[in-house]
Amino acid sequence: MGEDKEEAEGEIPVMQKINIGQRNIIEPIKWTPYTGETVVVNTVIRQGKKIKETAFYEDKVKAVPRGNAYCIGNGPSRKGFDLEKLKASGQTYGCNALYRDFMPDFIFSVDTKITVKMCEDQVGLKTVHYAPALEVNRKQNKGMLHLIPHNPHWISGNAAFWTAGVHGHRNIYLIGYDFREYGEGELNNIYQDTDCYGERNGDTIFEGWLKTFRDMLKMRPYVNYIVVHDDPPSFLHNLQTGTDLSNSRVISYKEFNDTVLDQHSQNAV
How high is the pLDDT of residue 265? Predict the structure, then answer.
């Protein structure tokens, strides 16, 4: 973190624009290496004026893309899949309670409760733990958290594929991304009914999560996004909106194993 600065309200440093143009037109992001950013770390009142204190956070991760990016959601569609098979051919991005069973190369949390628990479990000493500025600035994290780069303020799973793009990956696979719950009595999340999760009994398509993914396709048209799912809901076959950029598709776990994971193993021999 760099030197703190103070600015009167209305003079907040210009952050990277998340390419939402006029009339909500999503425009492509030109990829550039991430070096850090200035964020608001505190707000105080002085002489009747609201003052925002800012600081520059240097990127200390300095991630370099290697192979594919495998983003791991906690939807039930990945149940039974061996995540260890992903390590040989790329980098893994996960979220929240995933660390209980599998430690990815990068992990994300945005909610305070799970972030505090992950800091108590010292997840950030075992892998790169990304979180929003609010969580990064808490004293309790003891320097174990990194700022989500140019945070779009999405859910943790979507922040994972956002950051994989920031890191420079061109082939991003989504595993365990269901974008919905399946109803009472069904498995709706790998970690439902556990600490920091609770019951999951909804039968809901998460339209907001789905929209941010569809927006991501437009933001990075030079990136291929592949959803791995054996029984994809119909909306996963209709991810493109407006102009079809041909940068998204859905494949089965068999195809994923045969054409991506096993193929890499054969090439490595």
Answer: 65
207-221 CB burial, b ≥16 within 10 A, e <16? eebbebbbbbbbbbe
**Which amino acid is located at 70 in the chain?**
Y
**pTM of the predicted model as reported, rounded to 2 decimal places:** 0.88
- Residue 2, pLDDT > 60, answer no
Question: Would you report the helix, strand and coil content of the chain in percent, each value rounded to 5?
Answer: 30, 25, 45
How many C-beta neighbours within 10 Å does residue 226 have?
A: 18
As a whole number of angstroms, the distance between CA 227 and CA 230 comes to 10
> Given a cut of 60, is residue 61 above it in pLDDT?
yes
Architecture of domain 68-268: Alpha-Beta Complex (3.90)
Domain ranges of the chain: 4-58, 68-268
Number of residues written out for the chain:
269
